[in-house]
């Protein structure tokens, strides 16, 4: 990790993180924490452990989101 001052992340790291916490992943994906935890439990999203901390790699979150089914609208009779 590149540090500009002791304990400070560089601008590039703040803008392009390699991993994030569950709370951060929920925020950037616009999902609830519960949805993230359910995806972790069912195996559709992967997390890593660093000590007691749980992190989600950005690539894993992107893959999870890409694998979600596409929205298909349901036509109501009479709609064209």
Automatic annotation (TrEMBL):
SUPFAM superfamilies to which the protein is assigned, alphabetical: Putative DNA-binding domain (SSF46955)
Domain named Helix-turn-helix: residues: 20-67
Cross-referenced InterPro entries: DNA-bd_dom_put_sf, HTH_17, SinI_DNA-bd
Superkingdom as given in the UniProt entry: Bacteria
Protein name, entry field: Helix-turn-helix domain-containing protein
Species for this entry: Qipengyuania citrea
């Amino acid at each position: 990790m590149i540090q500009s001052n002791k304990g400070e992340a560089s601008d590039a790291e703040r803008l392009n993180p390699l991993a994030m916490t569950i709370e951060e992943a929920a925020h950037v994906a616009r999902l609830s924490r519960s949805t993230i935890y359910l995806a972790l439990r069912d195996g559709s999203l992967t997390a890593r452990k660093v000590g007691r901390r749980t992190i989600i790699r950005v690539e894993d979150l992107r893959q999870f989101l890409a694998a979600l089914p596409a929205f298909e609208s349901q036509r109501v009779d009479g709609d064209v």
